[in-house]
Amino acid sequence: MDRYQPHTIEAKWQAIWQQQRIYEVDLDRAQRPFFNLMMFPYPSAEGLHVGNVFAYTGADIFGRYQAMRGFDVFEPMGFDAFGIHSENFAIQRGEHPATLTARNVERFRAQLCAIGNRFAWDQQVETTSPEYYRWTQWLFVQMFSAGLAERKKAAVNWCPNDRTVLADEQVVDGRCERCDAPVQSRELDQWFLRITAYRDRLLKNLDDLDWSSVVKTAQRHWLGGLRDWLISRQRYWGTPIPIVYCATCGTVPVPEEALPVLLPPMTDWTPRATGSSPLADVPEFVTTTCPTCGGPARRETDVCDNFLDSAWYFLRYPSADFDDRAFDAARTAKWLPVHMYVGGAEHSVLHLMYSRFICMALHDLGHVPFEEPFRRLRSNGLLTQHGAKMSKSRGNVTNPDEYIQRYGADTLRMYLLFLGPFEQGGEFVDRGIGGVQRFLQRLWRLMLVPRSAHAPGEDERKALHRLIARVGQDVGALRYNTAIAALMAYVNRQDALSEEAADVLPRLLAPFAPHLAEELWARLGREFSVHQQAYPAADPRLVSVATRRVAVQVNGRTRGVVDLPADASEAEALEAAGGLASMRPHLEGAVRIVYRPGRVLNVVLSS
Question: What is the pTM of this model?
Fold first, then answer.
């Protein structure tokens, strides 16, 4: 029998997937569009850490599951590469940010390919590309023309270390969130986007959004310390603000046909202590002509906050192959709003609130037919190490490369998602990863040895079909750890597989361990690819189990009842309780859950 060799298998199938382009979608002819989006990364020099892989793998599992359910899944990826983080690291290294960023993007892309996600690389976006920031500038001009972008003198937060202004949301306890330096107050002329004009709508719409409760709570809190969005940055590495100043015509936006305003190459691009951007020291950039009267004019020298780059990138993905429009009307209407968005809760206020604001403004200006950008949003939990959040600044991040090299990507994917509930996270300790590897090796052996000599009995078939139902329900609800546990328990009970089980297991495994599932499917002699097959369907006659009526209580007082399987988990009970109108207002405020299977679910609120 062949040995399970993950590196050989993974390299083989990644090459075939790329050659066959199976994850690219016909964006114009897709019959059942499903936009599966994950927050694109800032490509740091350190590369991905296992916390990133946890988030991206969790989102990818959901996308693969939806594809096997018959949807045309679009799962793009890009890079949020402008901004202070990139520039500060370039300063430390003594290297130009353009050179450093290009190298970092290549490393990130190689790592993202290695983990086996179904990315549609043909629609990649990169915020530092003129082909992208041309349209960020176009967006700014739309906001300016609508009176939603204005320049005014204001007391602003000044970081003396980063030598730039900060939005209120980027100041934590009086310190810069990026470098922890004490923030000063300065009076400066700055550009603002008038997010306050949308405060009431931003607040009201939260009630109807299918979003993680932690994100909605955070946004309600901020919408209550809201000020206009300060987007000026006195740095080099960012999107130039497309404005010129003319003595005759005043403040004039750069017309669309003259975009992009290119970021000029500079040898001394480091930040100044004067309150001006380094671009102010480039005469050939500053000196220009007025697009209205043709007279002498000077360019704005501040650049945009990189949160503006990321506030609309999801609109660009389906139209990344168009060079004459920011987003194509037909494709935008077909693919958006985003069907599922997965990302960290730390982006609750800045990125997610800014994206909602930009989308509302574009809707009001007639550019998009919807005002909320994301139909469904779930926040992945955080992986911790030694009890602390993984953070590059804390120095406690773990690179996934060594684990992929030692165990393979499929093992790492499954181990990370087995650590804890996806929306809660867990503690990363690598002593358990060998157990996942042994599970995959056992499944490999079971699939390659001769099939069971006897026809499966009713109990065996019930066990298989209950597994199908359980895994499908758990994956659909992002309960990946329990789905993996169910798969492990089933496989560990088997001495030999029936033909039916051998047909089912690679398809159940496919979202979690895509390379191994593909290899096993091919060895069955089945049609390529397992990822284009139908997800297994459970026979309802074989999965019926006894149900129990469970009382649903708040602080011991019954508010309703739900019928649940006798062995329903706490997560399943809570999901069912959420379907009761009388319970929805109380679930977000729970401080403790008391669950007695088959009897009672008690939601305990703080006194």
Answer: 0.89
Residue of 284, 269, 321 lying closest to 99 (CA atoms): 269
Mean pLDDT of 377-389: 88
Whether the Cβ atoms of residue 163 and residue 271 lie closer than 8 Å to each other: yes
Map tokens 């078939």 to a residue: 461
Catalogue the E-assigned strands of 522-587: 547-554, 557-565
**Is residue 23 a contact partner of residue 16, using CB atoms and an 8 Å limit?**
no
Domain boundaries, the chain: 6-129+319-389, 132-306, 545-605
How far apart are the C-alpha atoms of 492 and 446, rounded to whole Å? 10
C-alpha span between 53 and 10 (Å, rounded): 16
pLDDT at 393 (0 to 100) = 58
C-alpha distances out from residue 401 to 60, 235, 332, 394, 409, Å: 19, 33, 36, 20, 9
Residue 446 CB partners (closer than 8 Å, separation 6+)? 491, 494, 496, 497
> Sheet holding 250-253: strands in order across?
250-253, 243-246, 296-299, 287-289
CATH class of 545-605: alpha beta
Which tokens hold the place of 537? Answer: 């369907």
The CATH topology of domain 132-306 is Rossmann fold (3.40.50)
CA distance 349 to 326: 25
d(CA 310, CA 140): 13
In the chain, the amino acid numbered 167 is: A
Q: Is the confidence at residue 503, as pLDDT, over 90? A: yes
Q: Of 414, 83, 402, which Cα lies nearest the Cα of 271?
A: 83
Q: What are the b/e assignments for 41-55, b being 16+ CB within 10 Å?
A: bbbbbebbbbbbbbb
Q: Which residues fall within 8 angstroms of residue 590, CB to CB, at 6 or more apart?
A: 603, 604, 605
- Count the neighbouring beta carbons within 10 Å of the beta carbon of residue 107: 16
**Where do runs of H (alpha helix) occur along 283-400?**
283-286, 306-310, 313-316, 329-335, 350-364
> Is 6-129+319-389 assigned to CATH 3.50.50.60?
no
Which of the four pLDDT bands, split at 50, 70 and 90, describes residue 395?
low
Strand order in the sheet with 376-380: 72-74, 33-38, 340-344, 376-380, 210-211
Amino acid at residue number 145: S
Distance separating alpha carbons of residues 180 and 172, to the nearest angstrom:
8
What average pLDDT does the chain have?
93
| Residue 287 dihedral angles phi and psi, to the nearest 5° | -80, 125
Backbone angles phi, psi at 352, to 5 degrees: -70, -35
Least confident of 50-59, 132-141, 191-200, 581-590: 581-590
Is there a shared CATH topology between the 6-129+319-389 domain and the 545-605 domain? no
